[in-house]
Amino acid sequence: MLASPRARRGEIRQFWRTFSRNQLALCGGVVVGLLVAIAILAPALSPWNPDKPDTKRILEGPSAKHWLGTDQIGRDVLSRLLYGSRISLAVGFVSMGIAVLIGILLGAMAGYHGGIVDAFVMRLVDLMLVFPRFFLLLAVLAFLKPSIWTIMAVIGLTGWMGVTRLVRAEFLTLREREFVIWSESIGAGAVRVIFKHILPNAIAPVLVAMTLGIPAAILTESGLSFLGLGVQPPYATWGNILNDGKELITYAWWLTLYPGLAILITVLSYNLLGEGIRDALDPRLRQSTVGRVLRLGR
Amino acid sequence: MALFALRRLVLAIPLLIGITFISFLVIQLAPGGPFDYLRTDSTSQDPKLIERLNKEYGLDQPTYVQYWRWLNRIVFLDFGRSFQPDSKPVMTKIGERLPITLLLNLVQMFIIVALAIPIGVTSATRQYSLFDKVTTVFVFVGFATPDFWLALLLMILFGVQLDWLPISGLRSLNYEYMSFWQQQRDFLSHLVLPVSVVVFTGLAGLSRYMRQSMLEVIRQDYVQTARAKGLPEPVVIGKHALRNALLPVVTILGLSLPSLIGGSVIIESIFAIPGMGQLMVQSVFSRDYPVIMGNLVIVATLTLLANLLADIAYGLVDPRIRFASRRRR
Fold it and tell me: N or C: lower Cβ tally within 10 Å for chain A?
């Protein structure tokens, strides 16, 4: 390994110094932290049971009792939004995890071995990128039983291409470095070199990719749920509430405005945080393609 | 140049085969086959029905035989017939929808490019100015805005509250009774909302790339040289810098095409526009699997073609690419 523990600590201090100067990124980080807390504490924070209908209070506008109004069967919108943040967060993290895992494995293989492995992996990436994402997602979901796990898996399995490209690019440069050649020359195997020596040095862009991958997955999930093909009711998700509100836009604007705002704020704060981490981790990356490659996955 | 284009074309062939392979794989995902869902409401169903359907569609054959047969048919653009009661050939259905989606995407693309280039150039040449800051905020918000939500909000505002614009379909009910110019106006007014939504979310990305690319180019020596020999600033920016800054944008444009086309799934189903995206959603809900497969193959193939065009265009404007690819391959 290149960096000794002390050098590592220095790096972290350096990172924090740059990061903490970026106020937008700090704000993003705080909001992300709040959102995680809200998701965990949703049962304690919700003023009402999110799934309990109240036939006397159907489609009531925001009031002191129901801050964000009620939906078409009288459920409290605020409570449903709070519970919905759990689904969004879970889908965001798990899908991103799947995508990043596949991306690291394929990207490391392609970048380290080069040659025919690289050619094959990169053609596979090109191939997957040719499919407009929503068409592919819909085609797959048409044949599967919809559940939260299917949605997570499908979003992850169609979103690994950006990470693969990033990791491969890092590996291509790192495998020529002295410390890699040195460890190879004393007989370290491919797996050891990849995971012990190269990957820790390529972790910066992966970290950024993870932070920016979560909001992308959240947007995709809410889009699918909005179409009625995502996480199925009675689960409260932001996309589902928007789907309910779609038919009622002439009477109940609160069913549309608030869940959308929730998505907007969530995605915005993750993006700000991600960009902040990128800028602070490595000034080199600032101008690089990390953001570009990932954004295209949307 | 012709050689370069030809080489790109040959490289696209494995991708084309890959598209059919992935699409075929998707059908295989269905546990128990694409007709298995009929079992669930089998109360009145003929118990032999699934067997018969499987035989009729050749699904009782081994997988590789099925793939080979399917491949042989789709070479002639024969995707079979829709499961809908009208049982039209899939290609006829797609043929009715495709022009609408293509038109919408071309209009959107054109407007995005026409706005993104000046915005990107201006915020790059005046980095950290008020204009730059405002556009940066706009970019971040644009990235984070769900397109379907924006569509709903605009529908509430302009369609319902203000009643300025129509919110669904491409034509009014009394379209037949309008004069020619009224018809054109009617059609355009139906396009305003869907196009604005896509332009807003798409603009964020492209103007950002344009800014980035321009910032990189402005720092180059040849731009300094142009300034040093006394050329006026508009010429330096508009001629020397812009031309070079546009190069990577051509590629980005090609690469962002799938997400633009993919976006039509949501936009078309919100605004009830009878295009490919809406067809896809409808077929998914009715499990019309020949149409789903046909849609997937056609959309991916079109994206591949568009990427190919972008690639060739890139080679056309940047000779370095042509020569580099010759040396490398």
Answer: N
Give residue-wise pLDDT tens across range A166-183. Answer: 899 888 888 888 888 888
Note whether B258 contacts A142, CB cutoff 8 Å.
Answer: no
Interface of A with B in 106-165 (CB under 8 A): 123-124, 126-136, 138-144
Q: How far apart are CA A164 and CA A100, in angstroms?
A: 8
Q: Is the pTM of this model over 0.80?
A: yes
What are phi and psi for residue A102, nearest 5 degrees? -60, -45
CA distance A230 to A148: 8
Do B22 and A128 make contact, defined as CB atoms within 8 angstroms? yes
CA dihedral B112, B115, B121, B125 (to 10 degrees): -140
Whether ipTM tops 0.90, in short, is no
Determine the distance in angstroms separating the CA of A280 from the nearest CA of chain B, rounded to an integer.
18
8 A C-beta contact, residue B142 and residue B226:
no
How far is B312 from chain A, CA to nearest CA, in Å?
16
Interface of B with A in 107-146 (CB under 8 A): 140-141, 143-146
What angle in degrees, to the nearest 10, is found between the helix axes of A238-246 and A203-227?
30
Identify the residue with better confidence: A66 or A242.
A242
- β-sheet bridge partners, residue A70: A76
Judged against a pLDDT cut of 70, whether residue B45 lies above it is answered with: no
